[in-house]
């Protein structure tokens, strides 16, 4: 198996606005600004806070580049919408406005450094990111652009924000990823630290969910019908149907068409007690009985379960891919076009995936027909893994861009596997690396911010 594809970071970009971007390893920043959110479901755009429209003016200057009032207002609007979706109080407090302004300042500093360092993003990479946003939201690119206009955002502005996110991601990868090393001693120390923490409070769960919503004033007959629908969903899941596909097709939760019902890995105390009780006695990959809450009937699948931060069983994925590396002789646009042609030929049974991989892939897996074998969560870079997570077995994703080049990937199989001691150590190695990268990223941002000349002008309104 080729390890060059393997994950080099789980960092999110603290300075970026929350946009629904599955390509390029771009993920929305968590409220803390350093971790990943548990869901990839975020609004396409958000309007600025309601109120009288203010004339635009400069609120700060970063080196020689201004930050405007309208930029702050737009980002505050997005933050409020995301907070509202997560059930948090969504008020444009002075502290929130201050945090948004600081994120914009750090983002400007990073973009300036990226450009000065010669980091570039061509239109093909932006096209691929835009296509991925559209696909994640089950829209065509044309429909996505119409939605953007309806929500008050010019499509060219949206594309520029995508370009900026890709620029910052590539800068971060170059500046930080290759410098982080995790020794066997680091892994041993992590395991020792966890030994005294094997209690219920250290339980972490990643659950998949299908919700069958029950209206507030539903009759007993309606409730019985909806419960029967939930039981049918459970039967189909137990029979082996892809749970993510069931969630996308049948769940009444508003974001499940986009995140396939995945609720995200989090500590048990951050889940409803009802969910924890249903999942606590289940193995990874198991399906819960139908449970009832105030919202309706739920069917849960245990996607990952960890005690003290170490998983003993995980859902693994078996995939294959074709990698084209870009450079002076092959642009990203040409690589995307070539892989799109490969995909059409494979689907029309005019070509064989494995043979095309052997003849064309620049990855070490080419000799095996692009076969990457079975992989546990966290083994691949985020932009690759996120595409895999959204596929059903047998499906080929549209070509996408990663830090390694342009990929065509097919998911072959999924399974639930008990991890060997060696595999558990490898997962711990990834967790320790993530922690080191988070710390390195925070230090890097602080240094970049301290070196930047920042002049505050007027307060945002």
Features:
disordered N terminus; three-stranded antiparallel β-sheet; Chitinase A, domain 3; 461 residues; alpha+beta
3D architecture notes:
- The protein is of the alpha+beta class and 461 residues long.
- It folds into three domains: 3-180, Orthogonal Bundle (Triger factor/SurA peptide-binding fold), CATH 1.10.4030; 199-307, Chitinase A, domain 3, CATH 3.10.50; 313-418, Chitinase A, domain 3.
- It has helices at residues 69-85, 94-116, 123-136, 141-150, 155-176, 184-195, 220-238, 243-250, 256-259, 273-280, 332-347, 353-360, 382-389, 421-451; strands spanning 58-62, 65-68, 203-213, 262-267, 291-292, 296-307, 310-324, 371-375, 400-402, 405-418, 454-456.
- The strands form two sheets. Strands 3, 4, 5, 6, 7, 8, 9 and 10 form an eight-stranded antiparallel sheet that branches. It has a three-stranded antiparallel sheet with strand order 2-1-11.
- Strand 6 and strand 7 (310-324) form a beta hairpin.
- The radius of gyration is 23 Å and the shape is globular.
- The protein starts with 57 loop residues before the first strand and ends in a 5-residue tail after the last strand.
Could you name the CATH class of the largest domain?
Mainly Alpha
Please give the oligomerization state of what you see. single chain
Poorly predicted ranges (pLDDT <50, ≥5 residues)?
1-53
Topology-level CATH name of the largest domain:
Triger factor/SurA peptide-binding fold
Helix-and-strand structural type:
alpha+beta
End-to-end separation in angstroms reads 54 Å
Shape: globular
SSE order? EEHHHHHHEHHHEHEEEHHEHEEHE
Roughly what percent helix?
40-55%
What share of residues are in beta strands?
A: 15-25%
- Return Rg in Å: 23 Å
């Amino acid at each position: 198996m080729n390890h060059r594809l393997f994950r080099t970071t789980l960092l999110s970009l603290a300075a970026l606005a929350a946009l629904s971007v599955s390509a390029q390893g771009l993920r929305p920043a968590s409220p803390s600004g350093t971790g990943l959110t548990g869901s990839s479901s975020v609004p396409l755009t958000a309007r600025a806070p309601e109120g009288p429209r203010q004339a635009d003016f400069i609120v700060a200057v970063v080196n020689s580049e201004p930050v405007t009032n309208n930029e702050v207002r737009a980002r505050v609007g997005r933050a409020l919408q995301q907070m509202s979706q997560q059930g948090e109080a969504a008020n444009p407090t002075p502290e929130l406005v201050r945090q948004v302004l600081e994120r914009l300042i750090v983002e400007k500093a990073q973009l300036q450094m990226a450009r000065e360092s010669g980091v570039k993003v061509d239109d093909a990479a932006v096209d691929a990111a835009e296509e991925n946003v559209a696909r994640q939201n089950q829209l065509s690119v044309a429909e996505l652009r119409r939605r953007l206009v309806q929500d008050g955002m010019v499509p060219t502005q949206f594309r520029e924000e995508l370009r900026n996110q890709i620029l910052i991601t590539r800068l971060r990868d170059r500046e930080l990823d290759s410098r982080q090393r995790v020794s066997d001693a680091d892994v041993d120390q992590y395991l020792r630290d966890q030994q005294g923490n094997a209690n219920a409070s250290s339980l972490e769960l990643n659950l998949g969910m299908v919700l069958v919503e029950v209206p507030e004033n539903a009759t007993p007959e309606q409730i019985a019908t909806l419960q029967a629908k939930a039981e049918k969903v459970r039967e189909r899941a137990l029979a082996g149907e892809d749970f993510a596909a069931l969630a996308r097709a049948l769940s009444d939760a508003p974001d499940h068409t986009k995140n396939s019902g995945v609720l995200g890995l989090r500590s048990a105390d951050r889940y409803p007690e009802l969910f924890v009780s249903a999942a606590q006695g289940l193995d990874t990959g198991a399906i819960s009985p139908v449970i009832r809450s105030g919202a309706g009937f739920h069917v849960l699948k245990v996607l990952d379960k960890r005690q003290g931060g170490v998983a003993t069983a995980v859902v693994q994925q078996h995939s294959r891919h074709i990698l084209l590396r870009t450079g002076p002789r092959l642009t990203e646009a040409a690589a995307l076009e070539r892989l799109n042609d490969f995909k059409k030929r494979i689907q029309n049974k005019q070509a064989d995936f494995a043979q095309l991989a052997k003849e064309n892939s620049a990855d070490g897996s080419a000799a095996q027909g692009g076969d990457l074998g079975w992989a546990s969560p966290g083994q691949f870079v985020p932009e690759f893994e996120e595409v895999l997570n959204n596929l059903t077995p047998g499906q080929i994703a549209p070509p996408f861009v990663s830090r390694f080049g342009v990929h065509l990937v097919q998911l072959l199989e999924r399974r639930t596997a008990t991890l060997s001691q060696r595999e558990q150590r490898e997962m711990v190695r990834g967790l320790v690396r993530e922690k080191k990268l988070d710390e390195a990223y925070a230090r890097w941002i602080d240094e970049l911010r301290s070196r930047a000349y920042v002049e505050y002008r007027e307060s945002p309104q």
